[in-house]
Specification:
Strand 9, helix 18 and strand 10 form a beta-alpha-beta unit. The two termini are 44 Å apart. Helices cover 63% and strands 11% of the residues. It folds into 2 domains: 321 residues, ABC transporter transmembrane region fold, CATH 1.20.1560; 236 residues, 3-Layer(aba) Sandwich (Rossmann fold), CATH 3.40.50. It has 587 residues and is of the alpha/beta class.
């Protein structure tokens, strides 16, 4: 998914204003940081003035009264110490503010991920999402630390320097303003083009993360099918393009930032020296005045230099922030519930009434699906790949919204069931069990607030998972690596079975749950499933027809439609699609 967006000046202002709203809870910190900033700026302004006094009143006339000189040196040292302390506190407070803002921004973005619907994850690579929460937020940190403080300091420094120049010479102070339109023009041009380059560079960095994540996830397949060179070439192309856009920003920085501003500064100082040279023919000009004025002029232009150098960071941060905000604002949410609190799942009856569904709004993957699963019954879904089996489960689990038809549980619309009621009473076991980093106990319990260790152990025994768990060194406290990579597919599936049974759901969803289990283990699991299904309504997707022969109702799907329905024996007698599938699987 390419989300490169060229931000206009108005867009950038909106992003900046929204970013600043994250600082509102820290008004006290901001106020203290401003005080420190003002103190640091005032200290910087006082120093050239003290040096001017020393040059004009003591050094030039060669008069060195001990008391006055000692007092001047003492003031100088005190001002320097105060300035150093204020600068340290200012930097510390702005960094503290930056980390607090990014902490909250990451929380908001991560919380939003949990609310997004499956449609979002269908179109956005996982690496791209990771990039927004890591690389992009880090760029925003740099803005607060390196730019926000610098911009504010620059403003105070320029304002105070200009005031001091007015105090020293009004005409020359007005002369300094002549160069400001040229500086603003340079910054305008830079902002216009750098926003485009940074936006592309950020998107390409996101693509790099997505490609890297995909390569790591699929490394076994890559090596088995000898795809290393192809992946390397694809990575190289993206990496080279990322490099090119970064070099474009470097060239733009090198042309329009410090070199251009430095040239204007040199020109301004040359004008000042020329002015003082001409003035010296008419009146006496002291060395201290010239020194102070040049110092203030440099202090006037240096903040502009610092700001221009940080413009690239500022631009990157705004582009990065816009990407994070697009994630937070994304409207691809999980289906909304309109809960009626008194709606409860009691018996577990399931009704699909003329349900039609399309993922893209163009092609219907389900067409007028209707069936009923009575309490305690098992309804099996079979069919070729792409026939719509998983789509039925996706709608029932509320992963996707549907517009046509209705799904009822105990006679009440699934859309009007409280979300908590659905989560607590529907158990799902997928073909590929996802195992979290932690322990076996934490994976079965999933941090359920009231579940006891005895319940975890009982669930494991129920699905025969205890047979391998209790052979492990730490048994239920055995460390589980990322995705349970040290376990076999069957062992991971057994843990997933135990996780589902532990919450004692009224409705059970099995999405080819025994597909990754060997025949011997499957036979044991099937016995547990038979016991587990008693008293529970079960929807089961199966490729192995042997696992669903005892189902109360088997639905055969083809191209999104139910083309056959009945028991195993009834379907065999019709000699239709199910009969052909059965013959193929049995040789």
């Amino acid at each position: 998914m390419n989300d490169t967006v060229n931000l206009t000046a108005r867009d950038q202002l909106k992003v900046l204003m929204r970013l600043l709203t994250y600082t509102f809870p820290f008004k006290g910190i901001i106020a203290l940081a401003f005080v420190m900033l003002i103190m640091s700026t005032v200290a910087g302004m006082v120093i050239p003035y003290l040096v001017m006094v020393f040059i004009d009143d003591y050094l030039t006339p060669a008069v060195f009264p001990e008391r006055e000189i000692t007092m001047l040196v003492a003031i100088y040292l005190i001002v320097q110490i105060i300035g150093a302390i204020a600068t340290y506190m200012n930097i510390y407070l702005f960094q503290y503010l930056a980390f607090k803002v990014i902490q909250q921004l990451r929380i908001d973005a991560f919380n939003k991920i949990g609310k997004l619907g499956m449609k979002y994850f269908d179109k956005v690579p996982g690496g791209s999402i990771v990039s927004r929460l890591t690389n992009d937020t880090e760029a925003i940190v740099e803005m607060f630390i390196g730019v926000f403080a610098t911009f504010l300091m620059a403003f105070f420094m320029m304002a105070s320097s200009y005031i001091m120049m007015f105090v020293l010479d009004v005409r020359l102070a007005f002369m300094a303003l002549v160069f400001m339109p040229l500086i603003f023009l340079i910054m305008f041009i830079y902002r216009k083009y750098s926003a485009i380059f940074f936006s592309h560079a950020r998107q390409l960095l996101s693509d790099l993360n997505a490609k890297l994540s995909e390569s790591i996830e699929g490394m076994k397949i890559i090596q088995v099918f000898n795809q290393e060179k192809r992946l390397q070439e694809e990575f190289r192309i993206i990496n080279d393009e990322h490099y090119e856009y970064n070099m474009k920003t470097v060239r733009l920085d090198g042309l329009l930032l410090r070199p251009a501003i430095s040239m204007i500064q040199i020109l301004a100082i040359a004008v000042i020296l020329g002015y003082f040279g001409l003035l010296s023919f008419e009146a006496s000009i002291t060395a201290g005045l010239i020194f102070a004025f040049i110092q203030y002029m440099e202090r006037f232009f240096e903040p502009i230099n610092q700001v221009s150098q940080n413009l690239s960071i500022f631009q990157q941060a705004l582009v990065a922030a816009s990407r994070v905000f697009r994630l937070i604002d994304d409207g691809t949410l999980e289906p909304a519930q309109n809960p009626v609190q008194e709606n409860k799942i009691t018996d577990g009856r399931i009704d699909f009434n003329n349900v039609t569904f399309s993922y893209d709004g163009k092609v219907d993957v389900l067409k007028s699906i209707s069936f009923t699963a009575m309490p305690g019954e098992t309804v099996a879904l079979v069919g070729h790949t792409g026939s719509g089996k998983s789509s039925i489960i996706n709608l029932f689990m509320r992963f996707y919204e549907f517009e046509h038809g209705e799904i009822l549980i105990d006679g009440k619309s699934i859309k009007e069931m409280p979300k908590s009621e659905l989560k607590e009473n529907i158990g799902l076991v997928l073909q590929d069990a996802f195992i979290f980093y932690g322990t076996i106990e934490s994976n079965i319990k999933l941090y359920h607030p009231t579940m006891t260790f005895e319940q975890v152990k009982a669930a494991s025994q129920f699905v025969k998972a205890d047979s391998f768990i209790e052979k492990l060194p730490n048994q239920y406290h055995h460390k589980v690596m990322e995705k349970g990579s040290t376990f076999s597919s069957g062992e991971r599936q057994l843990i997933a079975f135990a996780r589902t049974i532990a919450v004692e759901p009224k409705i059970l969803i099995l999405d080819e749950a025994t597909a990754n289990i060997d025949s011997e283990t499957e036979e044991e699991i099937q016995k547990s499933l038979n016991v587990m299904r008693k008293g529970r309504t079960t929807l089961a997707i199966a490729h192995r027809l042997s696992t669903i022969q005892d189902a109360d109702l088997i639905l055969v799907l083809n191209k999104g439609e139910i083309v056959e329905r009945g028991t195993h024996q009834e379907l065999l007698e019709t000699e239709g699609i199910y009969h052909k599938m059965y013959l193929l699987q049995n040789g």
